[in-house]
Amino acid sequence: MNKPPRKPKKATSGASSGSKPPASSANEDISQQADPASATITVTAVEVPELTEEEQRDRLHLERRVERAFFEAGKALMELRDRRLYRSTHKTFEEYCRVRPWRWRSHRFGHNRRQSYLLMDAAVIFDNLEQKCDRNDHILPTNEWQIRPLSKLDPDIQPEAWEQAVESANGKVPSHRIVKDVVQRIMERTQVPNTYRIGEVCQILVKDNPELRGKGGCWAIVSAVNDFSCTVKMWDGEYTVGLQHLKSFNYLPQECQQMQSLSNRISRLYSDSLEETVKNLLQSLGKLNRPYLTAVEEKLLSVLESEYEKDNCLND
Fold it and tell me: Where is composition skewed (Basic residues) in this entry (predicted)?
């Protein structure tokens, strides 16, 4: 039987065929070893030193600073607004937030009016959680987006909701979606029917809502009824507020109509460009806890209306 022809040998380098590469050569073919599975790979172990007690304290302190970054921003904005530290360059806080070239920008928004108020709301919620949640857990929000859903709940319920969200996240900082789901379940469990009616006159209760600061006790007229909130008209515009921020005056229908008429008269006059004395007068009328004007109040309002109409005629 004929043997198969041998394959031609491959060309080799100038080195003699009898020479062998050094044992330490990196190009050594592991397949040449008797048993490739028994090849030994040497791995150099790198020892990672444990943190000292001081380093552990420093790490915890720095982590807390990162977590509180949005909280500090919200607190700073509240102080800027409450002390009116913007007044030398801007007429209103809203204009200041819109125009000011902030060096720090949120990953989600720039610092417009809405974002500023969201940060201030978040600062209030963060402070509430820090005071009332179990300090042994050390799980607090790290950004405003995570706790935004909590703004729909009463401050007394917010810590409970946050702790449930942390538990759902297996002891880690919960995401916005987890917090939102927990808040939704609590709202469904504690749902109270919205009994307010369009045209009803209510008193504003601030209850840690920064957007309502300075309006505690003011009257407002319901213009829209939602599931868990009402849109109300006040002397300086419309606001959507939770039911916990409203208390009905229980006025008679005729008294509600009188307040609606007063609201329309004030709204036609009020603007940020008015003199401070005029604005203060209109604001004081917006804080009345009775459904009528005295003779003096009616006369003052009529004078302002006359001047306003006169200015409109001149501008026309």
Answer: 1-10
Global pTM? 0.43
**In angstroms, what CA-CA distances link 273 with 90, 233, 276, 297?**
12, 20, 9, 22
Same domain assignment for residues 78 and 110: yes
Q: Is 265 among the domain residues?
A: yes
Please state at what angle helix 253-269 crosses helix 295-315, rounded to 10 degrees.
40
The tens place of each residue's pLDDT in the chain, 316 residues long, gives: 455 555 555 444 444 444 444 544 444 554 455 565 566 777 676 676 787 888 777 776 666 655 567 677 777 888 888 888 878 888 887 777 777 655 444 433 345 566 777 788 888 888 888 888 766 566 888 888 888 889 878 888 899 999 999 999 998 889 999 998 998 888 777 666 788 999 999 999 887 677 787 888 889 999 999 877 899 998 788 888 888 889 999 888 889 999 999 998 988 888 878 888 888 888 888 888 888 889 999 999 999 888 876 665 545 4
Tell me the C-alpha distance between 16 and 57, whole Å.
66
In this structure, is residue 289 part of a structural domain? Answer: yes
State the residue range of the domain holding 168: 57-189
Q: Please check whether residue 165 lies inside any domain of the structure.
A: yes
Domain count, the chain: 2
